[in-house]
Amino acid sequence: MRAVTGAAEEPDGGVPHGALLRRFAVAVLDGGQGLEDVRSTCLATLGESATIQAASVVASFDGINRVADATGIRLDPETVAAGGDHLTKELGLGHLASARS
Amino acid sequence: MSQHLVATEPTSTGLDTAWAGIAAAGSWFSGTERIAIAEQTRAARACGLCVERRAALSPYSVSGQHEGQGPLSVPAVDAVHRISSDPGRLSEKWYAEALASGLLPEEVVEITGVVGVVTIADSLALALAQDPRPLPQPEAGEPSRARGPGAAVDERAWVPIVDPERAEGELKMVYDWAASGPGFVFNVARALTSVPEALRGFFSAFTPNYGTHGPVGPGGLNRSQVELLASATSAHNDCFY
Fold first, then answer.
1. Which domains does chain B have, with CATH numbers?
2. Contact A97 B220 (CB under 8 A)
3. Is the Cβ of A86 closer than 8 Å to some Cβ of chain B?
4. Residues 6+ apart with CB under 8 A from A26
5. Is B235 in Cβ contact with A54 (below 8 Å)?
């Protein structure tokens, strides 16, 4: 999970090219700062198809985050049962208003 | 010079559907107003008030007017800008104040759906080194102002939601489809059910790119990589979901 926040001692956090993927996500979400470089690295390392897939996932979650935040939905009971609330705390997101029940 | 990348066919088709839907009258906003919501979603990224609020310890400590108004009411513009530019700090207090300022719960839901679609389209374009999609021309027509049957507020969300057992017609079909993979319907899918157009539009854009079950889709990333991208995005946006 620390790979998600960039806090892992081993930068990839056990996920192949995890650090690179995280840098790509952050560059997109920060409005393109440093994006050209990290996109080029993704293309060289992961290939075009995987880079496009990564872009699609980041964009989709950028959108669904707004749906979750603006509607005040709670985590699903099924997700909580599967450890989702633990994950939320580990990511340091337990303080967020829309996560509170 | 950036290499312009092209989204996969399912992604493009889903976004085309959602994009065209923005131009049509919805349940609570006309096509002209929905296009204005899309314009304000984009304007919020450079809006001086939004920039100042984002930098403040609390968004409530900064008052003022957003740049650009158009045909939308002041509360609607504020909702669009807050959802677009500072979603991680939306709170139940924010939602209550939006309703107190005159917005209906379903209007908040419809605004959210449009902001969500525009966010997906624009983030994807940025990530792929493409120009943002031009907004479509608004279509004529009046909003239906029809409330979906069975929408109710409970502890699962601020907004009203329609449960699967109360769903009818297209909404029931959407629920059946949403439950077919994981075996249950995620709350985030329920969140837009009081405005079926919002549900259909948003998930037309979202679904081709991510599913919790089955293959992760074409591209070559494995499940752990996809989940890392999803989680990293949510963490960066300060979103628990």
1. 1-146 (1.20.1290)
2. no
3. no
4. B232, B236
5. no
